[in-house]
Amino acid sequence: MAETIDESSEVIKNNNRSIMTCILYETIKKKPIFSSYRNFCKLVGNDAMDYPDFEFWYFRFYHKQLDFNYDRNMDPVPKTIMDMPVLLMYKITENLDTVERTYLRSMNKSLRDVADSHRLIFDRLQITVFANGLHWYLNDKIFRCLKAENGCTLYTPTKKIESDKSVMEMGLEYLQRMLKMPNIQVHHLSLSLHRETSELDNFLPVPFHAKSVKLYALHMNQTFPFLAALNPGELESINLEPCCRGDREQMLRFFETEQFKQAKHVQFEEYLNEEDLLKFSHLKSFKCKLIFLEPVDFQRIREIISTLEVLESCELKYRDDWFPVHIIAQALEEEIPFGPLKTIKHSYPIPESNEHLEFEIEQEEYYSTIKIVKVR
Fold first, then answer.
1. Beta pairing, strands 133-138 & 285-290
2. Could you report the per-residue pLDDT of 94-115, keeping only the tens digit for each?
3. What positions does the domain F-box occupy (predicted)?
């Protein structure tokens, strides 16, 4: 019986009138076109006719145009999106957001060329590495790669992908595909490492274009490979947040990087002494902690900050077990009022200048926060 069906299919397939009759029959049944196409393929064979050709004849017969011998060569060539003028296509793709444009470029080479002609600028790229997962945000769109029983599962804004690869292998493979696109720029890059892994070595393309970066890691030495990938000069703001304190050598290593030397704003969670502040002469603003295991000379700090010509503001944190705000106020020769004290203000005229420094010192349990603004 099977041989008879196969033989019938071959007879129909090799006879144009028989093929047209089958399509007409499907049209008369008035079933959805794709269901009709599946029935046609089941009868005649999957290789008998492509869907676009079936669709053409189906709608001709549907509109009572029953000429089986119609010559399609007389018709104009159907237009596709690739026949659109380049300027028009550029204008359309310009209205896509950056994540949508990354999907567009994966369709074919011509669309990739159009997508790559735009600068891909993300406001935020936030990457977090956990023990059992890798998450990242592109602007407001979230991607997650989570450990599964046999491999991992990748969740994107449009689909879910099961894989037998490890979380880091699959997640980084997908993420790096985007990071290696031409013209990609990021206003703010945030990278949080809650585990140590060598799989992140050489993770960022060099140079990577970002205006600001926040790096959190278990140890400060984990942050240097990522910092080194960022384009010096273009990187304006650096925020380093190691979970564990680094040693003095690592801190000095940070000061020697070109990224630090060409930055404008720095937030540094390590403890510094007053002489370290001399290295901040090129910064417009900075935040840091003052060492608390040794005596701190607050008059020397005031003197150094007054010499930082481009400085606009800074914030220092100082820890002491006994009323740190009193210690600072006394060192700056500021009058200490009677009773409970939360805030002290201090003004310091910069010598040989019309500028002065405005200090606001706030008590926070065992910490004091010293906010300094240069008034011109």
1. unpaired
2. 656 555 656 666 655 666 666 6
3. 78-125
- Find all residues with CB under 8 Å of 131, minimum gap 6, and list them: 194, 195
Torsion angle of C-alpha atoms 147, 149, 151, 153, degrees rounded to 10: -50
264 pLDDT band, cuts 50/70/90, is: very high
Residues whose CB falls within 8 Å of the CB of residue 41, separated by 6 or more in sequence, listed in order: 48
Residue written as tokens 């064979």?
45
Q: Are 358 and 373 in contact (CB under 8 A)?
A: yes
Other beta carbons less than 10 A from residue 293's beta carbon: 6
In sequence order, the 6+-apart residues with CB closer than 8 A to the CB of 374 are 311, 312, 313, 350, 355, 356, 357, 358
The encoded tokens of residue 356 equal 């002065």
Strand, helix or coil for residue 195: coil
Cα–Cα distance list, 204 to 49, 70, 127, 228, 358 (Å): 47, 58, 12, 10, 41
Give the tokens for residue 249. Answer: 């050598």
Q: What band does 84 get if pLDDT is binned at 50, 70 and 90?
A: low
CA angle 57, 61, 67 (to 5 degrees): 85
**Using an 8 Å Cβ cutoff, are 172 and 134 in contact?**
yes
**297: helix, strand or coil:** coil
How distant, in Å, are the alpha carbons of 36, 185, 292 from that of 79? 25, 35, 73
Structure tokens at 154: 């990748």
| Mean pLDDT computed over every residue of the chain | 84
Strand-strand pairing, 133-138 and 120-129: antiparallel
Count of CB atoms situated within 10 Å of the CB of 267: 15
Quote the CA–CA distance of 106 and 66 in Å, as a whole number: 41
- Cβ neighbourhood burial of 109 (10 Å; 0-12, 13-18, 19+): exposed
Sign, CA torsion 126/129/130/136 = positive
